[in-house]
Amino acid sequence: MIAAVIGSICGLFALGIAPALITGNPRFLAAVPTLNVICFFLCGVFGWLLGGQLGPRLEGLFGEKNGYIIGGILSGLLPVLAVIAFGWYMAMHPANP
């Protein structure tokens, strides 16, 4: 569940992070609201699915409770980092009209 929460909330702003950092304008965080909502749902679902796979695997290293918490945090951040990388690529390579 931790992965879904982290993935959803961070995914809501993930596309706008790169343009906001490049330009220094925080308005880019909400520049494309439709795509932000799509990323909200996609990052939440993929974070939840990854968290269900990664949590039990980290259970042996960190213990039962800590393994699931660390697995959830990492699994929530993985899809968000992928969307941030995509946003960074799109900001650095704008489409030619």
Structure in words:
The chain is an all-alpha fold. The protein has one domain (2-92). The chain contains three helices and no strands. It starts with a helix and ends in a 5-residue tail after the last helix. The model has no long low-confidence stretch (mean pLDDT 90).
Task: Provide a compact summary of the structure.
This protein is mainly α and 97 residues long.
Protein traits:
mainly alpha; 3 helices; elongated; 97 residues
> In the residues, how many domains can be counted?
1
* General shape: elongated
Low-confidence stretches: none
How far is the first residue's CA from the last residue's CA?
42 Å
Radius of gyration: 15 Å
Q: How many strand units?
A: 0
Chain-wise SSE layout:
Layout: H1 2-23, H2 33-62, H3 64-92
Helix pairs in contact: 1-2, 1-3, 2-3
